[in-house]
């Protein structure tokens, strides 16, 4: 067992902060001595380590406490979540360091590229290989040839805005390698159609709850199912970022019009509110 003072010396966290963590129920002692001193075992130290990992991202203590107390998350799941966050942060830091190095060398250029030219060419090739023949023929007809189609694709995906969007998606997948693996091995048309039908069924059920509070159990249950299906469909490790992006897309004028037309007036707003309430 270790005392508060020993924990403080080991971690660099002040005794006062450790006392505060105890007061709010975030990091409580394993037991107290007869004299009333807080004592901590190895399991408590593991918990504190996980709390410190989350603090690296300036996550509010209230949110950290909610994650740590979530019965659906075990130790390994929390560690995997933190690892993905750290890898994404490491990637961003490496890009920032590289940009600063370029500036120090006098090469003050803004480079937002996420994928190299070779990687983008591989993505195009994978897309063509897995595309249904009728869609492939239409695309070739529209551009004149596969080479002209490829040239257009490379020009579009190389744009700064597209690369910024790719940066977000790469974070959702947990890394560039994971995203490229999925991009090069997409699900079949039959599987995609099956997932699309499942999503439509969920949205049809969700719209029947319009008027119900978005934090009610029945609404949260449907949104959770929606997120689970989207995670499986996209083969992502964590769907939160993607689902919030989906919620935002429902507010696009054209998308909103189509959603309201298909599911009823106010559907797009309700879907957005329900998803944001669940994931925020």
What features would you describe in this structure?
The chain is mainly alpha-helical and 280 residues long. It has 4 domains: 2-68, Orthogonal Bundle (Multidrug-efflux Transporter Regulator, Chain: A, Domain 2), CATH 1.10.1660.10; 73-111, no CATH class; 112-184, no CATH class; 189-279, Globin-like, CATH 1.10.490. It is built from 15 helices and 3 strands. Strands 1-3-2 form a 3-stranded antiparallel sheet. It is globular, with a radius of gyration of 24 Å. The mean pLDDT is 84.
In short:
The protein has 280 residues and is an all-alpha fold.
Give the count of helical stretches.
15
Question: Please, how many domains?
Answer: 4
Q: Tell me the strand order in the biggest sheet.
A: 1-3-2
CATH architecture classification name of the largest domain: Orthogonal Bundle
Amount of beta strand:
under 5%
Shape: globular
**Based on helices, strands and strand pairing, what is the structural class?**
mainly alpha
SSE series = EHHEEHHHHHHHHHHHHH
Considering the chains and any ligands shown, give keywords for the structure:
single chain; 4 domains; 280 residues; 15 helices; Multidrug-efflux Transporter Regulator, Chain: A, Domain 2; 3-stranded antiparallel sheet; 2% strand; mainly alpha
Helices and strands in order, then pairings?
Layout: E1 2-3, H1 4-11, H2 15-23, E2 31-32, E3 38-40, H3 42-55, H4 61-68, H5 75-104, H6 117-130, H7 133-143, H8 146-157, H9 160-173, H10 176-184, H11 189-207, H12 217-234, H13 240-249, H14 253-263, H15 267-279
Antiparallel strand pairs: 1-3, 2-3
């Amino acid at each position: 067992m270790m005392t508060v003072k020993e924990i403080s010396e080991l971690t660099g966290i002040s005794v006062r902060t450790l006392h505060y963590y105890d007061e709010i129920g975030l990091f409580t002692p394993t037991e107290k001595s007869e004299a009333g001193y807080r004592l901590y075992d190895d399991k408590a130290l593991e918990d504190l380590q996980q709390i410190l990992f989350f603090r690296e991202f300036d996550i509010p203590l209230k949110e950290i406490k909610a994650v740590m107390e979530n019965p659906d998350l075990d130790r390994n799941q929390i560690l995997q979540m933190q690892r993905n966050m750290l890898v994404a942060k490491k990637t961003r830091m490496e890009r920032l360091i590289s940009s600063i190095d370029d500036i120090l060398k006098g090469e003050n250029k803004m480079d937002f590229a996420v994928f190299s030219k070779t990687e983008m060419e591989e993505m195009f090739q994978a897309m063509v290989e897995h595309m249904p023949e009728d869609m492939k023929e239409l695309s070739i007809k529209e551009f004149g040839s596969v080479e002209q189609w490829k040239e257009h694709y490379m020009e579009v995906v190389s744009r700064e805005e597209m690369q910024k969007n790719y940066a977000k998606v790469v974070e959702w997948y947990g890394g560039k390698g994971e995203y490229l693996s999925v991009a090069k091995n997409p699900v079949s048309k039959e599987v995609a159609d099956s997932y699309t039908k499942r999503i439509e069924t969920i949205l049809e059920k969700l719209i029947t709850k319009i008027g119900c509070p978005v934090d009610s159990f029945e609404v949260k249950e449907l949104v959770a199912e929606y997120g689970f299906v989207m995670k499986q469909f996209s083969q992502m490790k964590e769907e939160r970022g993607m689902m919030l992006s989906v919620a935002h897309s429902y507010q696009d004028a054209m998308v909103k019009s189509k959603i309201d037309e298909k599911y009823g007036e106010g559907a797009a707003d309700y879907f957005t509110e329900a998803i944001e309430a669940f994931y925020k």
